[in-house]
Amino acid sequence: MLNDTAKGLKHVYQLSHPSQEDLIYDLFKCPKKPDEASLGKLLSVLRSFGIREDDPRLKHTIEKMREYELQSVDDSDTKHCLLNKDQFRECIRPSINLIAQALRNELIIPSWGEFIAKIGEMFHKCSELPEGKVAESTPQLARADPNKWGISICTIDGQRINLGDARVPFCFQSISKAFNYAIASSDLGADFVHTHVGHEPSGRLCNEICLNANGKPHNPLINTGAIVVTSMLKMGCKMADRYGFVCFLVIIRM
């Protein structure tokens, strides 16, 4: 009886409290066609919060949108694609948490427009500075074009902005250490990683071959620690597959 009562109360609650999908549908209903909602407006609003259409978390939503676009006899443009309630809900359901978080203005940088305006201002000011020269510590760095200038930012909530020559490939150098550390920690757990690598600063040069008092590299972001962390990537795979995985990481980072 208690279970039946709980189910009944839940049903009443659901009837009186619309779902997130319903609320979002109502937000983007077309004034002239109240039985349909605009996909383009939703994507435009998400873009204003820094969430772009090529965000991997929107993949299934965008794919479903494309399906309905192809079925549409009126338009093949996402900006003008209108869907009924069931279609709209089906599209946004795979990405509902991200969409709802953005529409509630709960992303890590809420005033995204102001933020990118400031970044753009700094970008243009710095582009006028001719001083300095490219690093020559390695041949890859020495070959870099000093006239290339770009900025890419991705927040912890996936808000992104690219300016200038942001798509020009460049040598990652030690930036790769942070990515490898993140991958190893995600795959194996931070506890396992730190049984072999410390997490304190060494107080020495990053390329110095040394260990801490416990016989471990001081941290994952100096050369000794990075070598150990890299050895943890895909440990259960054959050496050729591990090498292929690292090469794949290089490609996607470009």
TrEMBL record:
GO terms classed as biological process: glutamate biosynthetic process; L-glutamine catabolic process
UniProt superkingdom: Eukaryota
Pfam families assigned: EF-hand_14 (PF17959), Glutaminase (PF04960)
Listed EC numbers: 3.5.1.2
Keyword Repeat: yes
MF (Gene Ontology): glutaminase activity
Domain (Glutaminase EF-hand) ranges: 21-110
Catalytic activity: L-glutamine + H2O = L-glutamate + NH4(+)
Keywords: ANK repeat, Hydrolase, Repeat
Leader sequence segment: none
Assembly with partners or alone: Homotetramer.
Annotated family: Belongs to the glutaminase family.
Name under which the protein is recorded: glutaminase
